[in-house]
Amino acid sequence: MTQTVSRRGFVRQLAALPLLALLPPAALAQIISRTPPTSPFGADSTAEEVTAGLDLAGKTYAITGANSGLGYETMRVLAMRGARVIGIARTMEKAETACASVAGDTTPASLDLGDFGSVVDCAAMIRALGIPLDGLICNAGIMALPERELLYGIEKQFVVNHLGHFILVNQLLETVMAAPQGRFVLLSSLAHRRAPEAGIQFGDLAFSSGEYDAWTAYGHSKLANALCSLELARRLSGTPTTSNSVHPGVIDTNLGRHLPWYLQAAGTLFGWAFMKSVEEGAATQTYVATSPGLAGVNGYYFADCNPDPGETAAMRDEAMAARLWQVSEDITRDYLPG
Ligand SMILES: NC(=O)c1ccc[n+]([C@@H]2O[C@H](COP(=O)([O-])OP(=O)(O)OC[C@H]3O[C@@H](n4cnc5c(N)ncnc54)[C@H](OP(=O)(O)O)[C@@H]3O)[C@@H](O)[C@H]2O)c1
User: Where does residue 326 rank: exposed (0-12), middle (13-18), buried (19+ CB within 10 A)?
Assistant: First the structure.
């Protein structure tokens, strides 16, 4: 499947990349964005509804966590609308099973976001397909690990939810920028409210001081997702490529697998009263990835298919976002493009 990209546009976007990397954050322009239109969709819209009438034939999207919950539903609906979807799961077996179970054009791929080498390999496999990505949806995640776990000496939720995706984003930057209007969509969460008040714990990414709290660490990682999108949006300003983050709602999925049994049981029994369905939960990310009306909309945090100003000041803190990008680069340098 091929896509038309003007050669001049492609070269211009590629030429901008080294320049973006060289400029110190202070010298970079502020985020340039179109004002998003008010969407007719809301909390009870489904992914099918927000894409009704859209023909995504000729477009390609990649999504992590494609075998479960919101990622699976997003892949199903994108493929249903005619897109080619690269469904990324933790193992190739899971990716193949998920891709085979939806109708449409899907390609399985695998990575473990907690194993940086596998992220690099997955990105290489996607680049080798030789097609631009119209969207990269960074959807996979883990929540509220009961015990503090470390990977690379860093708290595991921050590694899996943020750093693994940070590498994937950087490895596929050119591939998304090669699309006429490529979009990065990063899954954040309302749980960013649970992050430490000071925001990203640059001095203690291992969460080694004080008592470990599973929700604080999860909120911290979800704040990182939103700030990563914010800084990416600033770096992409002036190009057609955009980055936005999303809170999907509260949905009963496998994400709750680490919660105590009684909370899981309560979710199953009473969740209908306050939770979204999976179909509704997948709507915002699907809308942000595909809506023609959102071309040029960059650097926003969406909830219920509309921009949300962000619940905490930290969510809009551009200096913290730039510092997070720099620190993430320092940590993952061996896994970033040369
Ligand atoms: N559900 C909610 O209420 C809610 C609310 C706010 C934000 N979110 C966000 O929405 C996103 C999707 O969550 P969901 O509710 O759909 O949860 P889910 O059903 O548990 O799906 C999470 C996906 O992430 C994958 N994953 C976990 N660890 C991974 C790793 N190390 N490497 C690669 N993939 C990994 C899982 O793979 P396995 O199946 O192999 O474990 C699964 O495919 C997450 O980022 C979450 O933080 C969800």
Answer: middle
